[in-house]
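Two proteins, back to back. First:
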Amino acid sequence: MQRILIICLLICCAQLNAQKTDKKLQQKISRLIQGFNGDIGVYVHDLKKNKIAVINADSIFPTASMVKVPILVGIMDKIGKKELDYHQTLTYKDSLLYEGVDILGSFKNNEKIELSKVIMLMLNTSDNTASLWLQSLAGTGTRINQIMDSLGFKDTRVNSRTPGREANRTQYGWGQTTPREMAALFERIAGKQLLNDSASEKMLKLLGRNYWDEEGLSAIPAGIFVASKNGAVNASRSEVIYVNGGGARYVFCICTKNNKDQSWGVTNEAWVLTRKLSGLLWDRYK
Protein backbone atom coordinates (compact mmCIF):
# COMPACT_ATOMS: atom_id res chain seq x y z
CA MET A 1 0.00 0.00 0.00
CA GLN A 2 2.86 2.40 0.86
CA ARG A 3 4.49 1.75 -2.53
CA ILE A 4 1.18 2.47 -4.31
CA LEU A 5 0.82 5.73 -2.39
CA ILE A 6 4.34 6.83 -3.35
CA ILE A 7 3.67 6.06 -7.03
CA CYS A 8 0.37 7.95 -6.93
CA LEU A 9 2.02 10.96 -5.30
CA LEU A 10 4.80 10.99 -7.88
CA ILE A 11 2.26 10.87 -10.71
CA CYS A 12 0.27 13.70 -9.16
CA CYS A 13 3.38 15.83 -8.64
CA ALA A 14 4.49 15.32 -12.24
CA GLN A 15 1.05 16.29 -13.53
CA LEU A 16 0.85 19.36 -11.32
CA ASN A 17 4.28 20.55 -12.42
CA ALA A 18 3.28 20.35 -16.09
CA GLN A 19 -0.13 22.01 -15.73
CA LYS A 20 -0.69 25.53 -16.97
CA THR A 21 -3.62 27.81 -16.23
CA ASP A 22 -5.97 28.58 -19.11
CA LYS A 23 -6.32 32.26 -18.21
CA LYS A 24 -8.95 33.07 -20.83
CA LEU A 25 -11.16 30.19 -19.71
CA GLN A 26 -10.67 31.10 -16.07
CA GLN A 27 -11.81 34.65 -16.82
CA LYS A 28 -14.89 33.36 -18.63
CA ILE A 29 -15.79 31.09 -15.73
CA SER A 30 -15.26 33.95 -13.26
CA ARG A 31 -17.70 36.08 -15.22
CA LEU A 32 -20.16 33.20 -15.48
CA ILE A 33 -20.32 32.59 -11.72
CA GLN A 34 -20.22 36.24 -10.72
CA GLY A 35 -23.13 37.11 -8.48
CA PHE A 36 -23.95 33.52 -7.52
CA ASN A 37 -25.94 33.50 -4.30
CA GLY A 38 -23.86 31.01 -2.36
CA ASP A 39 -20.33 29.61 -2.17
CA ILE A 40 -18.92 27.99 -5.29
CA GLY A 41 -15.83 26.07 -6.37
CA VAL A 42 -14.83 24.96 -9.86
CA TYR A 43 -12.03 22.78 -11.21
CA VAL A 44 -11.54 22.17 -14.95
CA HIS A 45 -8.78 20.11 -16.55
CA ASP A 46 -8.30 19.93 -20.31
CA LEU A 47 -6.68 16.51 -20.52
CA LYS A 48 -5.48 17.00 -24.10
CA LYS A 49 -3.52 20.21 -23.49
CA ASN A 50 -3.03 19.73 -19.72
CA LYS A 51 -4.46 23.16 -18.93
CA ILE A 52 -6.59 23.94 -15.92
CA ALA A 53 -9.01 26.57 -14.69
CA VAL A 54 -9.63 26.76 -10.95
CA ILE A 55 -11.81 28.80 -8.65
CA ASN A 56 -11.88 27.85 -4.96
CA ALA A 57 -10.87 24.38 -6.16
CA ASP A 58 -9.33 23.39 -2.82
CA SER A 59 -12.21 24.58 -0.63
CA ILE A 60 -14.20 21.84 1.09
CA PHE A 61 -17.81 21.32 0.05
CA PRO A 62 -20.55 18.81 0.89
CA THR A 63 -20.53 15.87 -1.49
CA ALA A 64 -24.22 15.00 -1.11
CA SER A 65 -24.56 11.98 -3.43
CA MET A 66 -21.08 12.41 -4.92
CA VAL A 67 -19.97 10.52 -1.79
CA LYS A 68 -21.06 7.42 -3.67
CA VAL A 69 -17.84 7.61 -5.72
CA PRO A 70 -15.60 6.94 -2.67
CA ILE A 71 -18.06 4.25 -1.61
CA LEU A 72 -17.67 2.66 -5.06
CA VAL A 73 -13.88 2.70 -4.65
CA GLY A 74 -14.28 0.96 -1.28
CA ILE A 75 -16.46 -1.75 -2.81
CA MET A 76 -14.12 -2.29 -5.76
CA ASP A 77 -11.19 -2.60 -3.36
CA LYS A 78 -13.08 -5.35 -1.51
CA ILE A 79 -13.85 -7.09 -4.81
CA GLY A 80 -10.21 -6.88 -5.84
CA LYS A 81 -9.19 -8.54 -2.58
CA LYS A 82 -11.76 -11.34 -3.12
CA GLU A 83 -13.63 -10.28 0.02
CA LEU A 84 -16.70 -9.60 -2.14
CA ASP A 85 -17.76 -10.94 -5.53
CA TYR A 86 -19.29 -8.61 -8.11
CA HIS A 87 -22.01 -11.16 -8.95
CA GLN A 88 -22.66 -12.54 -5.47
CA THR A 89 -26.24 -12.74 -4.22
CA LEU A 90 -27.21 -10.54 -1.29
CA THR A 91 -30.28 -10.68 0.95
CA TYR A 92 -32.18 -7.45 1.54
CA LYS A 93 -33.42 -6.76 5.07
CA ASP A 94 -36.04 -4.24 6.18
CA SER A 95 -33.48 -2.85 8.63
CA LEU A 96 -31.51 -1.51 5.65
CA LEU A 97 -34.30 0.85 4.60
CA TYR A 98 -33.48 4.54 4.33
CA GLU A 99 -36.83 6.31 4.08
CA GLY A 100 -37.42 7.98 0.74
CA VAL A 101 -38.43 7.17 -2.82
CA ASP A 102 -35.57 4.76 -3.61
CA ILE A 103 -36.13 1.58 -5.61
CA LEU A 104 -34.32 -0.77 -3.23
CA GLY A 105 -36.46 0.43 -0.33
CA SER A 106 -39.50 -1.09 -2.02
CA PHE A 107 -38.02 -4.59 -1.71
CA LYS A 108 -39.57 -7.09 0.66
CA ASN A 109 -37.66 -8.47 3.63
CA ASN A 110 -35.36 -11.38 2.65
CA GLU A 111 -35.66 -10.60 -1.08
CA LYS A 112 -32.53 -11.50 -3.09
CA ILE A 113 -30.49 -9.13 -5.25
CA GLU A 114 -27.06 -9.33 -6.87
CA LEU A 115 -24.29 -7.05 -5.60
CA SER A 116 -23.78 -5.68 -9.12
CA LYS A 117 -27.39 -4.48 -9.18
CA VAL A 118 -27.05 -2.76 -5.82
CA ILE A 119 -24.01 -0.92 -7.23
CA MET A 120 -26.04 -0.02 -10.32
CA LEU A 121 -28.83 1.43 -8.14
CA MET A 122 -26.34 3.45 -6.09
CA LEU A 123 -24.74 5.06 -9.13
CA ASN A 124 -27.43 5.17 -11.81
CA THR A 125 -30.41 6.28 -9.72
CA SER A 126 -28.46 7.47 -6.65
CA ASP A 127 -30.44 5.09 -4.44
CA ASN A 128 -29.63 5.97 -0.82
CA THR A 129 -30.71 2.65 0.67
CA ALA A 130 -28.38 0.86 -1.77
CA SER A 131 -25.59 3.33 -1.00
CA LEU A 132 -25.72 2.95 2.76
CA TRP A 133 -25.81 -0.83 2.37
CA LEU A 134 -22.73 -0.68 0.14
CA GLN A 135 -20.98 1.65 2.58
CA SER A 136 -21.34 -1.02 5.27
CA LEU A 137 -20.24 -3.77 2.87
CA ALA A 138 -17.16 -1.71 1.99
CA GLY A 139 -16.13 -1.99 5.62
CA THR A 140 -17.55 1.24 7.12
CA GLY A 141 -16.77 4.86 6.34
CA THR A 142 -13.56 4.61 8.34
CA ARG A 143 -12.10 2.04 5.95
CA ILE A 144 -13.22 4.03 2.89
CA ASN A 145 -11.52 7.12 4.34
CA GLN A 146 -8.34 5.13 4.91
CA ILE A 147 -8.39 4.14 1.23
CA MET A 148 -8.92 7.76 0.18
CA ASP A 149 -6.01 8.82 2.36
CA SER A 150 -3.77 6.07 0.94
CA LEU A 151 -4.57 7.31 -2.57
CA GLY A 152 -3.52 10.85 -1.68
CA PHE A 153 -6.99 12.37 -1.24
CA LYS A 154 -6.74 14.23 2.06
CA ASP A 155 -10.06 16.08 1.98
CA THR A 156 -12.44 13.53 0.44
CA ARG A 157 -14.16 11.75 3.31
CA VAL A 158 -17.27 9.83 4.31
CA ASN A 159 -18.80 11.43 7.41
CA SER A 160 -22.13 9.68 7.93
CA ARG A 161 -22.10 6.56 10.14
CA THR A 162 -18.35 7.05 10.62
CA PRO A 163 -17.05 7.24 14.22
CA GLY A 164 -15.12 10.40 15.02
CA ARG A 165 -16.59 12.41 12.16
CA GLU A 166 -19.75 13.68 13.84
CA ALA A 167 -18.65 17.32 13.70
CA ASN A 168 -17.82 16.99 9.99
CA ARG A 169 -21.21 15.43 9.37
CA THR A 170 -22.92 18.35 11.10
CA GLN A 171 -21.04 20.78 8.84
CA TYR A 172 -20.96 18.93 5.52
CA GLY A 173 -23.46 16.07 5.71
CA TRP A 174 -22.85 12.55 4.38
CA GLY A 175 -19.48 13.35 2.86
CA GLN A 176 -17.05 16.10 1.95
CA THR A 177 -14.61 16.81 -0.86
CA THR A 178 -13.03 19.56 -2.93
CA PRO A 179 -13.65 20.25 -6.63
CA ARG A 180 -10.02 19.39 -7.39
CA GLU A 181 -10.07 16.06 -5.54
CA MET A 182 -13.40 14.86 -6.93
CA ALA A 183 -12.29 15.69 -10.46
CA ALA A 184 -8.95 13.98 -9.80
CA LEU A 185 -10.78 10.82 -8.70
CA PHE A 186 -12.50 10.70 -12.09
CA GLU A 187 -9.32 11.57 -13.94
CA ARG A 188 -7.40 8.74 -12.30
CA ILE A 189 -10.23 6.28 -12.88
CA ALA A 190 -10.28 7.24 -16.58
CA GLY A 191 -6.49 6.92 -16.71
CA LYS A 192 -6.58 3.45 -15.10
CA GLN A 193 -4.59 4.77 -12.15
CA LEU A 194 -6.98 3.88 -9.33
CA LEU A 195 -6.64 0.49 -7.58
CA ASN A 196 -5.74 -1.34 -10.83
CA ASP A 197 -6.51 -1.39 -14.55
CA SER A 198 -9.52 -3.71 -14.40
CA ALA A 199 -11.06 -1.97 -11.38
CA SER A 200 -10.63 1.44 -12.98
CA GLU A 201 -12.18 0.25 -16.24
CA LYS A 202 -15.16 -1.26 -14.42
CA MET A 203 -15.70 1.91 -12.38
CA LEU A 204 -15.55 4.07 -15.51
CA LYS A 205 -18.22 1.94 -17.19
CA LEU A 206 -20.40 2.05 -14.09
CA LEU A 207 -20.08 5.83 -13.81
CA GLY A 208 -21.00 6.15 -17.48
CA ARG A 209 -24.66 5.35 -16.72
CA ASN A 210 -26.48 8.16 -14.96
CA TYR A 211 -30.27 8.55 -14.79
CA TRP A 212 -29.87 12.14 -13.57
CA ASP A 213 -28.81 13.65 -16.91
CA GLU A 214 -30.70 16.95 -17.04
CA GLU A 215 -28.07 19.26 -15.53
CA GLY A 216 -24.39 19.23 -16.58
CA LEU A 217 -24.87 16.20 -18.83
CA SER A 218 -27.62 17.94 -20.79
CA ALA A 219 -25.07 20.19 -22.50
CA ILE A 220 -23.10 17.25 -23.94
CA PRO A 221 -24.44 15.58 -27.11
CA ALA A 222 -25.54 11.96 -27.18
CA GLY A 223 -22.83 9.71 -28.62
CA ILE A 224 -20.07 11.30 -26.53
CA PHE A 225 -18.76 9.16 -23.68
CA VAL A 226 -19.37 10.74 -20.29
CA ALA A 227 -18.87 9.47 -16.76
CA SER A 228 -20.52 11.48 -14.02
CA LYS A 229 -21.96 11.76 -10.55
CA ASN A 230 -24.06 14.55 -9.13
CA GLY A 231 -25.22 15.41 -5.65
CA ALA A 232 -27.98 17.59 -4.27
CA VAL A 233 -29.36 18.62 -0.92
CA ASN A 234 -31.30 21.78 -0.16
CA ALA A 235 -28.40 24.24 0.05
CA SER A 236 -25.80 22.36 -2.01
CA ARG A 237 -25.80 21.21 -5.66
CA SER A 238 -22.68 19.69 -7.23
CA GLU A 239 -21.60 17.63 -10.24
CA VAL A 240 -18.46 16.00 -11.61
CA ILE A 241 -18.16 14.98 -15.27
CA TYR A 242 -15.48 13.29 -17.39
CA VAL A 243 -15.91 13.79 -21.15
CA ASN A 244 -14.17 11.86 -23.94
CA GLY A 245 -15.20 12.16 -27.58
CA GLY A 246 -15.87 14.56 -30.43
CA GLY A 247 -12.31 15.85 -30.23
CA ALA A 248 -12.64 16.67 -26.53
CA ARG A 249 -11.23 15.05 -23.43
CA TYR A 250 -11.67 16.91 -20.17
CA VAL A 251 -12.93 16.63 -16.61
CA PHE A 252 -14.62 19.22 -14.47
CA CYS A 253 -16.28 19.52 -11.09
CA ILE A 254 -18.55 22.26 -9.81
CA CYS A 255 -19.47 22.34 -6.11
CA THR A 256 -21.76 24.74 -4.28
CA LYS A 257 -22.86 25.28 -0.69
CA ASN A 258 -24.79 27.79 1.40
CA ASN A 259 -27.04 28.33 -1.61
CA LYS A 260 -29.79 30.91 -1.21
CA ASP A 261 -31.93 29.21 -3.86
CA GLN A 262 -33.03 25.89 -2.36
CA SER A 263 -35.77 25.15 -4.88
CA TRP A 264 -35.98 21.81 -6.71
CA GLY A 265 -37.14 22.90 -10.15
CA VAL A 266 -35.13 23.31 -13.35
CA THR A 267 -34.70 27.03 -12.64
CA ASN A 268 -32.65 26.41 -9.49
CA GLU A 269 -29.77 28.89 -9.66
CA ALA A 270 -27.01 26.31 -9.10
CA TRP A 271 -28.44 23.91 -11.67
CA VAL A 272 -28.82 26.67 -14.27
CA LEU A 273 -25.20 27.64 -13.63
CA THR A 274 -24.06 24.01 -13.94
CA ARG A 275 -25.74 23.69 -17.34
CA LYS A 276 -24.15 26.95 -18.51
CA LEU A 277 -20.68 25.90 -17.32
CA SER A 278 -20.98 22.50 -18.98
CA GLY A 279 -22.11 24.15 -22.23
CA LEU A 280 -19.24 26.64 -22.08
CA LEU A 281 -16.70 23.83 -21.68
CA TRP A 282 -18.17 21.64 -24.41
CA ASP A 283 -18.22 24.55 -26.90
CA ARG A 284 -14.59 25.33 -26.03
CA TYR A 285 -13.18 21.83 -26.25
CA LYS A 286 -15.19 20.05 -28.94
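And the second protein:
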Amino acid sequence: MKVYHSMKLIPSLSERSKGIATRFFVLFVLTFSLSTVLSAQIQNTSDVYESTNRPRALAVIGDRYHSPVHVRNGLMGPLALENIPVVYIENHKALTAEALNGVDLLIFLKDGQIWHNGYEQGSQVMWMTDEQQQAIYDFVNNGGGFLALHNSHGIYPPDGLYYEVFGGNYGGHPAPEEFMIRVEDKNHPITAGVEDFRTYDEQHMSKYYGEPDQLLLRNISDANKSAPAGWWREVGKGRFVYLAPGHTPEALGHPMMVRLIRNSVRWLTKQSDDK
Protein backbone atom coordinates (compact mmCIF):
# COMPACT_ATOMS: atom_id res chain seq x y z
CA MET A 1 0.00 0.00 0.00
CA LYS A 2 1.30 3.41 -0.96
CA VAL A 3 1.05 6.24 1.51
CA TYR A 4 1.19 9.72 0.01
CA HIS A 5 2.77 11.67 2.84
CA SER A 6 3.31 14.70 0.61
CA MET A 7 -0.40 15.30 -0.17
CA LYS A 8 -2.28 17.70 2.13
CA LEU A 9 -5.85 16.53 1.72
CA ILE A 10 -6.99 17.98 5.10
CA PRO A 11 -5.91 21.44 6.26
CA SER A 12 -4.00 21.57 9.47
CA LEU A 13 -5.60 22.84 12.68
CA SER A 14 -3.63 26.08 12.53
CA GLU A 15 -4.73 26.76 8.94
CA ARG A 16 -8.37 26.15 9.84
CA SER A 17 -8.06 28.50 12.78
CA LYS A 18 -6.61 31.20 10.56
CA GLY A 19 -9.43 30.77 8.05
CA ILE A 20 -12.10 31.00 10.71
CA ALA A 21 -10.44 34.06 12.20
CA THR A 22 -10.26 35.74 8.80
CA ARG A 23 -13.92 35.07 8.05
CA PHE A 24 -14.90 36.31 11.49
CA PHE A 25 -12.91 39.51 10.99
CA VAL A 26 -14.49 40.17 7.58
CA LEU A 27 -17.97 39.52 9.00
CA PHE A 28 -17.24 41.87 11.91
CA VAL A 29 -16.09 44.65 9.59
CA LEU A 30 -19.16 44.29 7.35
CA THR A 31 -21.53 44.21 10.33
CA PHE A 32 -19.87 47.24 11.91
CA SER A 33 -20.01 49.19 8.66
CA LEU A 34 -23.67 48.36 8.09
CA SER A 35 -24.62 49.25 11.65
CA THR A 36 -22.76 52.56 11.34
CA VAL A 37 -24.66 53.47 8.16
CA LEU A 38 -28.00 52.48 9.67
CA SER A 39 -27.27 54.40 12.86
CA ALA A 40 -26.45 57.51 10.85
CA GLN A 41 -29.71 57.20 8.92
CA ILE A 42 -31.71 56.71 12.10
CA GLN A 43 -30.06 59.73 13.72
CA ASN A 44 -30.94 61.82 10.67
CA THR A 45 -34.62 60.87 10.61
CA SER A 46 -35.83 59.35 13.88
CA ASP A 47 -36.05 62.61 15.81
CA VAL A 48 -39.05 63.75 13.75
CA TYR A 49 -41.01 60.68 14.89
CA GLU A 50 -40.41 61.04 18.61
CA SER A 51 -43.23 63.44 19.45
CA THR A 52 -46.76 64.33 18.42
CA ASN A 53 -45.80 67.98 18.85
CA ARG A 54 -44.93 68.54 15.20
CA PRO A 55 -45.03 71.81 13.23
CA ARG A 56 -48.11 72.16 11.06
CA ALA A 57 -48.17 73.56 7.54
CA LEU A 58 -50.57 75.25 5.14
CA ALA A 59 -49.66 74.95 1.44
CA VAL A 60 -51.21 77.34 -1.09
CA ILE A 61 -50.75 75.70 -4.49
CA GLY A 62 -51.78 75.62 -8.14
CA ASP A 63 -52.36 78.20 -10.87
CA ARG A 64 -52.87 78.35 -14.62
CA TYR A 65 -49.40 76.97 -15.38
CA HIS A 66 -48.86 74.67 -12.39
CA SER A 67 -51.29 71.87 -11.64
CA PRO A 68 -52.08 71.54 -7.94
CA VAL A 69 -51.67 67.78 -8.39
CA HIS A 70 -48.12 68.22 -9.67
CA VAL A 71 -47.29 70.59 -6.81
CA ARG A 72 -48.95 68.46 -4.14
CA ASN A 73 -47.21 65.30 -5.34
CA GLY A 74 -43.87 67.08 -5.30
CA LEU A 75 -44.32 68.35 -1.75
CA MET A 76 -45.80 65.21 -0.21
CA GLY A 77 -42.49 63.31 -0.11
CA PRO A 78 -40.24 65.83 1.67
CA LEU A 79 -43.00 66.91 4.06
CA ALA A 80 -43.80 63.30 4.95
CA LEU A 81 -40.12 62.57 5.58
CA GLU A 82 -40.10 65.50 8.02
CA ASN A 83 -43.39 64.28 9.56
CA ILE A 84 -45.08 67.61 8.88
CA PRO A 85 -48.91 67.57 8.87
CA VAL A 86 -50.04 69.76 5.97
CA VAL A 87 -53.28 71.09 4.49
CA TYR A 88 -53.22 71.90 0.76
CA ILE A 89 -55.52 74.60 -0.62
CA GLU A 90 -56.03 75.81 -4.18
CA ASN A 91 -58.75 78.31 -3.32
CA HIS A 92 -56.97 81.62 -2.71
CA LYS A 93 -59.92 82.92 -0.67
CA ALA A 94 -59.20 80.30 2.01
CA LEU A 95 -55.93 82.08 2.86
CA THR A 96 -56.92 84.17 5.88
CA ALA A 97 -55.45 85.35 9.14
CA GLU A 98 -57.64 82.78 10.91
CA ALA A 99 -56.28 79.96 8.74
CA LEU A 100 -52.70 81.00 9.56
CA ASN A 101 -53.40 81.03 13.30
CA GLY A 102 -53.35 77.25 13.38
CA VAL A 103 -50.07 76.61 11.54
CA ASP A 104 -46.33 77.13 11.99
CA LEU A 105 -45.33 77.00 8.32
CA LEU A 106 -46.77 78.61 5.18
CA ILE A 107 -45.80 77.17 1.78
CA PHE A 108 -46.51 78.80 -1.59
CA LEU A 109 -46.22 77.52 -5.13
CA LYS A 110 -48.75 79.79 -6.82
CA ASP A 111 -48.54 83.00 -8.80
CA GLY A 112 -50.58 86.10 -8.05
CA GLN A 113 -53.13 85.94 -10.86
CA ILE A 114 -56.56 84.48 -11.44
CA TRP A 115 -58.45 84.43 -14.75
CA HIS A 116 -62.12 85.38 -14.57
CA ASN A 117 -63.10 84.68 -18.18
CA GLY A 118 -61.13 81.60 -19.08
CA TYR A 119 -57.65 82.33 -20.34
CA GLU A 120 -58.44 85.22 -22.65
CA GLN A 121 -55.79 87.90 -22.73
CA GLY A 122 -56.74 90.73 -20.42
CA SER A 123 -59.06 88.70 -18.19
CA GLN A 124 -56.42 88.09 -15.50
CA VAL A 125 -56.45 90.00 -12.21
CA MET A 126 -54.35 89.90 -9.05
CA TRP A 127 -56.06 87.89 -6.34
CA MET A 128 -54.18 88.83 -3.16
CA THR A 129 -55.98 91.42 -1.06
CA ASP A 130 -54.47 93.94 1.35
CA GLU A 131 -55.90 91.87 4.20
CA GLN A 132 -54.15 88.75 2.95
CA GLN A 133 -50.86 90.61 2.56
CA GLN A 134 -51.18 91.88 6.11
CA ALA A 135 -52.01 88.39 7.38
CA ILE A 136 -48.89 86.92 5.76
CA TYR A 137 -46.68 89.73 7.03
CA ASP A 138 -48.05 89.39 10.58
CA PHE A 139 -47.68 85.60 10.45
CA VAL A 140 -43.98 85.78 9.59
CA ASN A 141 -43.22 88.82 11.74
CA ASN A 142 -44.71 87.08 14.77
CA GLY A 143 -42.59 83.93 14.35
CA GLY A 144 -43.98 81.87 11.49
CA GLY A 145 -41.98 80.28 8.69
CA PHE A 146 -42.67 80.95 5.01
CA LEU A 147 -41.33 78.70 2.23
CA ALA A 148 -41.92 80.21 -1.23
CA LEU A 149 -41.24 78.07 -4.29
CA HIS A 150 -40.70 78.72 -7.99
CA ASN A 151 -43.20 81.33 -9.28
CA SER A 152 -44.44 82.50 -5.88
CA HIS A 153 -42.91 85.92 -6.49
CA GLY A 154 -44.82 86.33 -9.75
CA ILE A 155 -47.21 89.23 -10.32
CA TYR A 156 -48.41 90.14 -6.84
CA PRO A 157 -49.48 93.67 -5.81
CA PRO A 158 -46.43 95.90 -6.37
CA ASP A 159 -44.77 97.61 -3.41
CA GLY A 160 -46.96 95.67 -0.97
CA LEU A 161 -46.25 93.81 2.26
CA TYR A 162 -46.00 90.50 0.39
CA TYR A 163 -42.92 91.63 -1.53
CA GLU A 164 -41.56 93.22 1.63
CA VAL A 165 -41.48 89.76 3.20
CA PHE A 166 -40.14 88.21 0.00
CA GLY A 167 -37.09 90.42 -0.50
CA GLY A 168 -37.18 89.79 -4.23
CA ASN A 169 -39.36 89.94 -7.32
CA TYR A 170 -40.26 88.14 -10.52
CA GLY A 171 -37.89 88.66 -13.43
CA GLY A 172 -39.42 86.47 -16.12
CA HIS A 173 -37.97 83.29 -17.60
CA PRO A 174 -37.06 81.70 -20.93
CA ALA A 175 -38.57 78.44 -22.19
CA PRO A 176 -37.81 75.39 -20.03
CA GLU A 177 -34.38 73.87 -20.58
CA GLU A 178 -31.68 72.05 -18.68
CA PHE A 179 -29.38 74.22 -16.58
CA MET A 180 -27.23 74.20 -13.46
CA ILE A 181 -28.20 75.05 -9.89
CA ARG A 182 -25.07 76.12 -8.02
CA VAL A 183 -24.82 76.25 -4.24
CA GLU A 184 -23.53 79.69 -3.24
CA ASP A 185 -23.45 79.16 0.53
CA LYS A 186 -22.35 75.67 1.53
CA ASN A 187 -22.30 76.45 5.25
CA HIS A 188 -25.97 77.23 5.86
CA PRO A 189 -28.26 74.55 7.36
CA ILE A 190 -30.54 74.85 4.32
CA THR A 191 -27.79 73.66 1.97
CA ALA A 192 -26.43 70.89 4.23
CA GLY A 193 -25.83 67.80 2.09
CA VAL A 194 -26.76 69.66 -1.11
CA GLU A 195 -24.45 69.59 -4.12
CA ASP A 196 -24.56 71.51 -7.39
CA PHE A 197 -27.04 69.83 -9.73
CA ARG A 198 -28.49 70.05 -13.22
CA THR A 199 -32.23 70.03 -13.79
CA TYR A 200 -34.81 70.61 -16.53
CA ASP A 201 -36.97 73.55 -15.49
CA GLU A 202 -37.89 77.18 -16.08
CA GLN A 203 -34.86 79.30 -15.30
CA HIS A 204 -36.40 82.15 -13.36
CA MET A 205 -34.39 85.36 -13.63
CA SER A 206 -35.37 86.51 -10.16
CA LYS A 207 -34.56 89.95 -8.82
CA TYR A 208 -33.00 89.74 -5.37
CA TYR A 209 -32.79 92.75 -3.07
CA GLY A 210 -31.32 91.14 0.04
CA GLU A 211 -27.87 90.82 1.55
CA PRO A 212 -25.20 88.93 -0.45
CA ASP A 213 -24.51 86.57 2.45
CA GLN A 214 -28.16 85.46 2.49
CA LEU A 215 -28.02 84.13 -1.08
CA LEU A 216 -28.15 80.33 -1.10
CA LEU A 217 -28.38 79.30 -4.76
CA ARG A 218 -27.75 80.60 -8.25
CA ASN A 219 -28.99 79.19 -11.56
CA ILE A 220 -26.64 79.19 -14.56
CA SER A 221 -27.62 78.26 -18.11
CA ASP A 222 -25.30 76.66 -20.65
CA ALA A 223 -25.30 80.07 -22.36
CA ASN A 224 -23.95 81.52 -19.08
CA LYS A 225 -27.12 83.42 -18.16
CA SER A 226 -27.60 83.39 -14.41
CA ALA A 227 -29.82 84.70 -11.62
CA PRO A 228 -30.37 84.23 -7.88
CA ALA A 229 -32.22 80.94 -7.31
CA GLY A 230 -32.63 80.77 -3.55
CA TRP A 231 -32.22 82.91 -0.46
CA TRP A 232 -33.19 83.23 3.19
CA ARG A 233 -34.40 86.14 5.31
CA GLU A 234 -35.39 86.87 8.87
CA VAL A 235 -38.45 89.09 9.27
CA GLY A 236 -39.18 90.09 12.84
CA LYS A 237 -39.38 86.85 14.84
CA GLY A 238 -39.99 84.73 11.76
CA ARG A 239 -38.12 83.33 8.78
CA PHE A 240 -38.48 83.22 5.01
CA VAL A 241 -36.91 81.00 2.31
CA TYR A 242 -37.25 81.16 -1.46
CA LEU A 243 -36.26 78.25 -3.75
CA ALA A 244 -36.64 78.80 -7.51
CA PRO A 245 -36.95 75.24 -8.97
CA GLY A 246 -40.38 73.69 -9.32
CA HIS A 247 -42.00 74.17 -12.74
CA THR A 248 -41.48 70.53 -13.77
CA PRO A 249 -42.00 67.34 -11.77
CA GLU A 250 -38.34 66.55 -12.52
CA ALA A 251 -37.15 69.76 -10.88
CA LEU A 252 -39.47 69.63 -7.87
CA GLY A 253 -38.69 65.96 -7.29
CA HIS A 254 -34.92 66.14 -7.85
CA PRO A 255 -33.09 64.56 -4.86
CA MET A 256 -31.20 67.78 -4.23
CA MET A 257 -34.44 69.78 -4.30
CA VAL A 258 -36.04 67.32 -1.89
CA ARG A 259 -33.09 67.86 0.44
CA LEU A 260 -33.40 71.64 0.08
CA ILE A 261 -37.10 71.52 0.96
CA ARG A 262 -36.49 69.28 3.97
CA ASN A 263 -33.65 71.46 5.22
CA SER A 264 -35.72 74.61 4.65
CA VAL A 265 -38.64 73.19 6.61
CA ARG A 266 -36.38 72.40 9.53
CA TRP A 267 -34.73 75.81 9.47
CA LEU A 268 -37.99 77.71 9.05
CA THR A 269 -39.58 75.91 12.00
CA LYS A 270 -36.35 76.34 14.02
CA GLN A 271 -35.74 72.61 14.40
CA SER A 272 -32.18 72.84 13.06
CA ASP A 273 -31.01 75.71 15.29
CA ASP A 274 -29.22 73.47 17.79
CA LYS A 275 -27.93 70.92 15.26
